[in-house]
Amino acid sequence: MQKKAVILYSGGLDSTTCLAIAREQGFEPYAISFRYGQRHSHEMEVAKRNARPMGAADHLVVDFDLRKMGGSALTSDLAVPKTGVEENEIPVTYVPARNTIFLSFALGWAEVLGAFDIFIGVNALDYSGYPDCRPEFIEAYEKMANLATKTGVEGSKLTIHTPLISLTKAEIIKKGLSLGIDYAQTHSCYDPAEDGAACGLCDSCRLRLKGFAEAGVSDPARYVKG
Amino acid sequence: MQKKAVILYSGGLDSTTCLAIAREQGFEPYAISFRYGQRHSHEMEVAKRNARPMGAADHLVVDFDLRKMGGSALTSDLAVPKTGVEENEIPVTYVPARNTIFLSFALGWAEVLGAFDIFIGVNALDYSGYPDCRPEFIEAYEKMANLATKTGVEGSKLTIHTPLISLTKAEIIKKGLSLGIDYAQTHSCYDPAEDGAACGLCDSCRLRLKGFAEAGVSDPARYVKG
Fold this sequence. Notes:
Two copies of one chain form a homodimer.
Chain A: E1 3-8, H1 13-24, E2 27-35, H2 42-50, E3 58-63, H3 98-113, E4 117-119, H4 135-148, H5 150-153, E5 159-161, H6 169-178, H7 203-215
Helix pairs in contact in A: 1-6, 6-7
EC number (chains A, B): 6.3.4.20
Pathway (chains A, B): Purine metabolism; 7-cyano-7-deazaguanine biosynthesis
InterPro entries (chains A, B): QueC, Rossmann-like_a/b/a_fold
């Protein structure tokens, strides 16, 4: 029987590649997505449409509303910046404790499924400056997770896999292409048009476009005509 | 200006005492509660009614549905045990990763509020055998939390306070009484009657009643007539 793994899955480039890597490593992927008060619903539509075609055995969507808390351009009326990625600064699109919250739901589901592996597509290079994407955060999370659950008490070991952590965006894209991913079916934009076309200007679009350029491949995603 | 602290608050005996202790220590308490698919809504009604009278500056209720995940008597159709607290065994009322999830939302809210202190009323003695109530879990969570957020990046230190961790239930009750808590306004039962009366038989009721007995005080809460 295949070992189950829970994959944090947003329908974007990184998490889709992460899911494909989990499959390549022999895991049966259980995709988990979060509707947390993002400004646009397009991301979730993409995730719902693509989770099973991308190979997920099951897809769990967890709903909660981070807008009640505020504190981020992604969950409030703050403007999403379109002028380029700031160096050495945590951007306003940072959502307080987002990956901590996401991983905690993944941890709960893993325990219910009897899975001992969680995949998260964080990246320490092209990572937009979010504190909860750093390798030392993931290590500390794994230690905590092994004390938080029955798994730890019963002596099994839960592992947080971060297969993208030391890859450039270009390397992620090349890896994904080698695994047969159609990146036209992935969505990365923080602030898409109503028809779902990517803006091409937010941090996430800029990192993605730079990655495709460096990989020497054209991005098949649909962008707003400039 | 008073320092803000986020308090995990269910309206029960432990978290209400915890909130009072945070006030005693000079913090301005921000109470956070979770509607996570519990079988009964009574707990949340109690929490909503009492948070501000108990001294909370604000009360945030976060909604999500752990029933989609299953795995616990508190969020599924599994029966709540009424025959006594099992020793050395994790009971079916354990909710996978619940405290990890709760603390993660508290962490996000703390960051938005500019708070560096989180209070959780876990208890290592009369603790029902949940892995996520152990001191080593809390220590690991605090380490992780300091890497997860801007707070950590900017050099401030976030502290997870567990003022009840080494107290017996009787000591918690005596502490709360000395701080003026009216325990008639707190709710602990896992499986209350429709009118909100506590069952007196579930683990939570048994631990509470034993605590009042040991404190030499009668429990002012309303129980189902046996």
